[in-house]
Each structure stands twice: as structure tokens, then as C-alpha cells.
Design brief:
heterodimer; A: alpha+beta; OB fold (Dihydrolipoamide Acetyltransferase, E2P); 2 domains; 5 helices; 11 strands; about 25% helix; disordered N terminus; disordered C terminus; B: Rossmann fold; D-amino Acid Aminotransferase, Chain A, domain 1; 3 domains; 5-stranded parallel β-sheet; 16 helices; about 25% strand
């Protein structure tokens, strides 16, 4: 994702939703680069909770955090860390020296979520990598898509064999923590799944979330 | 030389390889399972990558996970260490197919020496006396009984894959053989994913002596002396030393030169270990070759001053040896003690858990290769080796005296270890006189052995 999205992370939660396969990726990236800073400023200056613009096949929606609480802030920062990690292809896990190293690594594994103890409480879960390899999200899955626990949302290619990345819970697809084509390690956080209850404005086009909870994934 | 090496192992050997890479100025990446996230090699690594869950079959034993990790981190070589994928020739093949170098012999060489029965025949053709054994793998019970009859009891059942005593049983009768076959098959299957077994003649009162060789790609080979690994518990080496007290200087030299000549002639490449059984009369029989770096390689390093892991990496990178036999000087005496997470007081029950305090001994000639640190949580999923204490002295007597001091100084609190058995061994007359045989501990029984030492 362009830097613009990260830079506004502490102010607003942004979702860029591109529709229409024919639209050139680079063109979208450029538009986002130009539009986002202006839109963020706009949202910040108004009292609006949500702002959406459409241009050709491109749709950008900015949403203010529900309550602007610390947990939201922490989440955003966390996401920035993870996105940074994803920006270094061929490098999974940080090269930090000394004792901080394993802690840096922990940030991407399921163990960290367990230690935080609040990963599910703050309205999100993270789909983690089932293997060491190259991540590709499923083309039909994008930010805002509603998913159920166990849904396949992408793959990690390990020597040509795709391993399924599955949604750990029911919810709505949020941010990608790594880019398509990035090298990822086993257990690394890949895609945020926002719990449906915490995201009232989620994409109405997505499939409805079942009333009954789906069985939990057994991957953990 | 390689640009970047993936270290596909854990524990003390991962640390050892990491150090060798640094000495050679080669970048490295430590591949680890989730259970080893907080381990010392991962903490000290320049770069580390999680390749799978604690279950070794999905991490350290997964060829695709290891190779995928090497590719995504930009490595051009993989060091398998010992155990895990180190002697899996099909792994070496797949590694080569991905344009990576397997640090060890090439896939072609591994294939040549892959069958233990075939290797025995090959070395026999190059002048090594070999131990009688079954022709090929045991097909079924009937085949096994027939082969055992031909070889003559007692025989040793051995798995084709791996080592470390798993899947191995010595049997004295046909009835024992029948019942042991099933156990050995399931043990071998569980440990190595391969349940092929073969038979070898068992020599009572034998000594285990092995020759370390190094051969470069250009057919230039040397030996680096021998190691005596006769102190074993249930076919697992626990103490190794060099020179061997079992043979005279002339006999040691003869065996070493025979082994190095045969290795070159048979087309071996890289560092390797030729294992021999030596009987009470001093006659030796070749049993098998280990095509990898071995746990006990530091014994040879202490005597020769040669960094065995660096040498292995250099040979795999296609460098010439750079030295000849006369350059290899064997000095003094070295003894290695394997410190295992096994409760010597409770039938060597394997242990795991938090190491509350760890202190490594020091002093002249004392070396500790270990991944322990105070606060380290030993995971229960892997083998029990916690580290190796290697002690050098100008002669065996001095090495033993230094060993006693070092073992007393070693502190591993929180996890039960087998250190008591080492301390008892250093009080045992048979060991002190250098007359230990591979059945010493098992014959007496470890408990009785410890009790005898306690009585003084």
C-alpha cells in the first residue's frame, strides 16, 4: 500500500476498494497517492464519520475510528509495523540485533496474539501464514469482503504447492499486512479480519454473516 | 564461496554452523520451528525465518519448507547439520534441482554411498575389511531369519536411515529377532520416516573407532585421525575421545591411512566419517560411512586445530582442501561429553523445561558447545542433546583431570541431565584404563554403574 495510507493511520481507518479488473494497478496506486492525503485532510476538518469518493472504477472510502480509543491507535501502529516488514521481500523476520530480535519475530506469529491476550477482544483477528513461501490473496477477497471462519482467503506458495490461508473467524476482511507476492514465514500475520460487530459500515455487497457462529478453525 | 547459507537445523549445531559462517564471512539465515523461536541460534542470527510448527515433520524434516525458506531469503546453499535432512539423498537431489548447494557431498556421491550394504561392498573392493551383514534390506521376517542364520548370531538389527541408536537392537536368537523386528521397524519409521532394516554381525566386547576423512572435489583427500566412541548407552554415543586407547600408534595410523585412501578411491567427497568396529584382538571391520558433520567433530578440531564445519562448507563450495596429510598434526588428547536432558537417576527419562541457571565451565583446554542459557525453556519435541563439553589436554591423564574439574563446574539447573553418568565414568577403572567397550554401560546397567561410582 502507498505510504499515504500508513501516514494517516493514527487518524482514520482507510479502505481502498478497487473494482474492475481492467483498471491498471499502477494508475490506481497513483490516484490513491494523490487523493488520499487530500481526503484525509478533508475528513479530519469535518465532523464526518465516513467519506467515500468514486472515480471511474476506483472507489475510496475513509472511515473514522468508531471511538478513537487507544486500542484502535495501537492497532494502526501495529499494522504499520507489519506492513513495513512486508516491504522487504525475501526477508521475513527482522534483522534486529541482540535480545530484541526474537521479540521482533514474535510480532508476526500467532504466539504474539496469544500473549497480547486482546487480539480478539479489540475486534479483530489475524489470518496467519500456513507455510514459508510467497503470499497471494484470493482475487475475490478484498477489503470489506465478509468471510466466515475457515473461508479460504489466499494462499502461500511453498515450492509451487499452494497452502491455504484461511480466515480465523467470521468477519470482514480488513488490511493486508503483507503485499501480494511477498515472502512470508510460517505463522506470519497476513490479513486482518475485523469482527462484523465492530465494523457496522462494512461492505453491504459482501456475503451475510451467519447468525450462528461457524466452527472455529483448527489451524491453531 | 557461497553468498548466503540457510542453516536448516537447531540447537548447538545451528549455533556451531552460524559461527563457522561468520568466520568465513558468509551471511546466514537460521531456519527454525515455532518451538525454537526463543532459542539462542535464532537470537544470535543475522537473519532467521520460521519454517513451520514444532512438529519436525512439518519443519526441520520438511524438505519443501526448508528449500522454500532458502529461496525466499536469497540463500544459495543449505547446511543441514546432523540428523534431520542431513543424510537424505532425495533432499540433496531436490536442493540441487532448485539451484541450491547442499552442504555435504553432492547428490551423486550421496547416492553412491546411500545404501549401507552397497557401501560396505564398495569399500571392501577398495581394501577395507568389512563386517559381515545382510545382502540388502530385509524384505520380511523369513528373509531376516535366513540372513541372520547365514551371518551367525548374535546380530545387530540396524535401520538403513539415520542413527542415534533408534531402531537398533542386538539379538542372540531367532526368537529375539522375530520380536525385535517389529519394534525396530516402528522405531525407524517414527524417527526417520523409513522402516528399512538390515543386519550386521554383532561382535561382543567391541570398540567403536571411526576415522575422520576430508576429500575435496578434485580427489585430494586426507584423514584427520580417529575418534573412539566406545562409551555408549543403548547404541547412543555419550563420550568420544581421541586418540583411541584401543590401538597402538602404528595401528591407528594404518587404519586412518587405509580409510582415507579407500575414500578417495571410492569417489567420496567432502568430510565424512568411516565407522569401524575393533574386536578384542585389535582386528577392525568397516561398518558404515557418515556423509555429514558429526556431533563429535570437536574432538578432531581440538587435536588438529582445523575448523571442521568451515572445511565442510569450503569443500561444498568447490574449494580445494588447501593442505596435505603432512600438514595435519594431531596434538594431545581430547574427550567429549554429551550433555543430554536425560535423568540419569530415573532410567535416563528424557527431560524438558526451564533451565533456571546455566553456567559453562572454563579453563585451559575446556570448550563448551551449547545452546543453553539461563532462562531457556528446553522444548520437549526434539532430541535430548543440550550441549557438548570438550576437554583437551597434552595427554589422556591431564584431559581426564581437566574433565573432572569441568564437569563439576558445569551448572544446569531446572532440567535433569546425564552429567552424573560422565562423572561416574571418570571414576570407573575400565574407562580410566582405556578398556571400555560399547556394551560396558548396558551390561552393568546404568543404575548399578552410578551406584558403584557413588560407593567409590
Amino acid at each position: 500500500m502507498p505510504d499515504a495510507i500508513r501516514s494517516e493511520a493514527h487518524e482514520a481507518h482507510a479502505e481502498a476498494n478497487a473494482e474492475g479488473r481492467a483498471v491498471d494497478r499502477a494508475a490506481i496506486a497513483e490516484s490513491i497517492g494523490e487523493l488520499l492525503p487530500a481526503l484525509i485532510a478533508k475528513l479530519g476538518a469535518t465532523g464526518l464519520a465516513e467519506l467515500e469518493v468514486r472515480q471511474d472504477a476506483l472507489r475510496i472510502r475513509l472511515r473514522r475510528p468508531v471511538d478513537g480509543s487507544a486500542s484502535r491507535d495501537r492497532r494502526s501502529t501495529d499494522r504499520t509495523d507489519r506492513a513495513d516488514r512486508g516491504d522487504r521481500p525475501g526477508r521475513a523476520g527482522s534483522a534486529a540485533s541482540g535480545t530484541s530480535h526474537p521479540i521482533g519475530l514474535s510480532a508476526v506469529g500467532p504466539g504474539r496474539d496469544g500473549r497480547e491476550g486482546g487480539a480478539r477482544d479489540d475486534g479483530r483477528a489475524v489470518a496467519t501464514s500456513p507455510a514459508v513461501g510467497i503470499f497471494q490473496p484470493r482475487s475475490s477477497i478484498r477489503a470489506g469482503t465478509r468471510v466466515r471462519a475457515g473461508d479460504r482467503i489466499g494462499t502461500v506458495d511453498m515450492l509451487g504447492v499452494p497452502q491455504d490461508v484461511v480466515a480465523p473467524s467470521d468477519g470482514v476482511v480488513g488490511a493486508n499486512l503483507v503485499e501480494p507476492g511477498d515472502a512470508v514465514e510460517y505463522g506470519q500475520g497476513l490479513v486482518v479480519i475485523e469482527f462484523a460487530s465492530a465494523t457496522p459500515g462494512a461492505d453491504p455487497a459482501g456475503s451475510p454473516v451467519a447468525a450462528a457462529a461457524a466452527p472455529a478453525m483448527t489451524d491453531r | 564461496m557461497f553468498r548466503k547459507i540457510l542453516i536448516a537445523n537447531r540447537g548447538e549445531i545451528a549455533l556451531r554452523i552460524l559461527r563457522a559462517c561468520r568466520v568465513l564471512g558468509v551471511e546466514s539465515v537460521v531456519a527454525y520451528s515455532e518451538a525454537d523461536r526463543e532459542s539462542l541460534p535464532v537470537q544470535l542470527a543475522d537473519e532467521a525465518i520460521c519454517i513451520g510448527p514444532a512438529d519436525a515433520k512439518r519443519s526441520y524434516l520438511s524438505a519443501s519448507a526448508v528449500i522454500s525458506a532458502a529461496l525466499v531469503t536469497g540463500c544459495d546453499a543449505i547446511h543441514p547439520g546432523y540428523g534431520f535432512l542431513s543424510e537424505d539423498e532425495s533432499f540433496a537431489d531436490v536442493v540441487a534441482a532448485h539451484d541450491l548447494t547442499f552442504i555435504g557431498p553432492s547428490a551423486a556421491v550421496l547416492e553412491k554411498f546411500g545404501s549401507k550394504a552397497g557401501t560396505r561392498e564398495l569399500f571392501a573392493a577398495h581394501g577395507l575389511p568389512t563386517i559381515p551383514g545382510s545382502h540388502g534390506m530385509l524384505r520380511d521376517e523369513l528373509h531376516a531369519l535366513g540372513e541372520a542364520e547365514r551371518i551367525g548370531y548374535p546380530v545387530l538389527i540396524k535401520p538403513s536411515a539415520g542413527g542415534g541408536g533408534k531402531g537398533m537392537r542386538m539379538v542372540r536368537t531367532a526368537r529375539e529377532l522375530e520380536s525385535a523386528l517389529r519394534v525396530c521397524r516402528s522405531e525407524a519409521k517414527a524417527a526417520f520416516g523409513d522402516d528399512s532394516l538390515y543386519l550386521e554381525k554383532w561382535l561382543d566386547e567391541n570398540r567403536h573407532v571411526e576415522i575422520q576423512v576430508a576429500v575435496d572435489r578434485y580427489g585430494h583427500g586426507v584423514h584427520l585421525g580417529e575418534r573412539d566412541c566406545s562409551v555408549q548407552r543403548r547404541h547412543q554415543k555419550i563420550i568420544e575421545e581421541a586418540p583411541t586407547p584401543a590401538l597402538s600408534d602404528a595401528a591407528r595410523l594404518e587404519l586412518a591411512e587405509l580409510a582415507s585412501r579407500a575414500s578417495v578411491a571410492a569417489g567420496y567427497e567432502n568430510v565424512g566419517t568411516l565407522e569401524f568396529l575393533v574386536d578384542a584382538a585389535g582386528a577392525f571391520y568397516f561398518i558404515e560411512i557418515n556423509c555429514r558433520i558429526q556431533v563429535e567433530h570437536p574432538v578432531t578440531e581440538m587435536l588438529t586445530g582445523i575448523d571442521m564445519v568451515a572445511l565442510q562448507i569450503r569443500i561444498a563450495a568447490g574449494e580445494p582442501l588447501g593442505f596435505s596429510q603432512p600438514d595435519v598434526q594431531l596434538r594431545g588428547h581430547a574427550i567429549e561429553f554429551r550433555v543430554n536432558a536425560e535423568d540419569a537417576a530415573h532410567d535416563f527419562r528424557p527431560g524438558a523445561g526451564l533451565v533456571e541457571r546455566y553456567h559453562a565451565p572454563g579453563g585451559p583446554g575446556v570448550r563448551m558447545d551449547s545452546h543453553l542459557f539461563s532462562g531457556y525453556d528446553v522444548p520437549p519435541f526434539y532430541d535430548s542433546l543440550l550441549g557438548k563439553l570438550i576437554v583437551w589436554g597434552p595427554d589422556r591423564t591431564t584431559a581426564i583431570a581437566r574433565s573432572r574439574v569441568a564437569l563439576d563446574e558445569l551448572v544446569v539447573e531446572g532440567v535433569a541431565t546425564n552429567v552424573a553418568i560422565h562423572q561416574a565414568m571418570l571414576l570407573n577403572e575400565t574407562f580410566l584404563e582405556g578398556r571400555m567397550t560399547t556394551n560396558l554401560l548396558d551390561r552393568v546397567g546404568s543404575a548399578a554403574f552410578l551406584a558403584a561410582a557413588a560407593r567409590g
